């Protein structure tokens, strides 16, 4: 197993988002950092998905 796979198995997507300063709500939504967003439009679960981008 390489380093990438080890990190991928030990860090969740939510933990990665929070490490970059995103506030993730209980239902997994956060403000998208890739466009000018004021309300949460990005879903964080097994991967990231922005409904606005």
What separation lies between the terminal Cα atoms? 34 Å
Average residue pLDDT:
92
- Range of strand content: 15-25%
Form type: elongated
Task: Characterise the protein shown here.
- The protein is an alpha+beta fold and 53 residues long.
- The protein has helices spanning 3-10, 13-19, and strands at 29-30, 42-44, 48-50.
- The protein has a three-stranded antiparallel beta sheet, covered by helices on one side.
- A hairpin with a 3-residue loop joins strand 2 (42-44) and strand 3.
- It is elongated, with a radius of gyration of 12 Å.
What does the secondary structure layout of this molecule look like, with pairings?
Blueprint: H1 3-10, H2 13-19, E1 29-30, E2 42-44, E3 48-50
Antiparallel strand pairs: 1-2, 2-3
List keywords for this structure.
alpha+beta; 3 strands; 53 residues
Q: Concise description?
A:
The chain is α+β, with helices and mostly antiparallel strands. Helix content is 28%, strand content 15%. The chain has helices at residues 3-10, 13-19, and strands spanning 29-30, 42-44, 48-50.
């Amino acid at each position: 197993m390489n380093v990438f796979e080890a990190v991928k198995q030990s860090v969740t997507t939510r933990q990665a988002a929070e490490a970059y300063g995103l506030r993730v709500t209980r239902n997994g939504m956060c403000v998208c950092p890739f466009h000018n967003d004021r309300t949460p439009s990005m879903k964080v679960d097994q991967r990231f998905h922005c409904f606005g981008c």
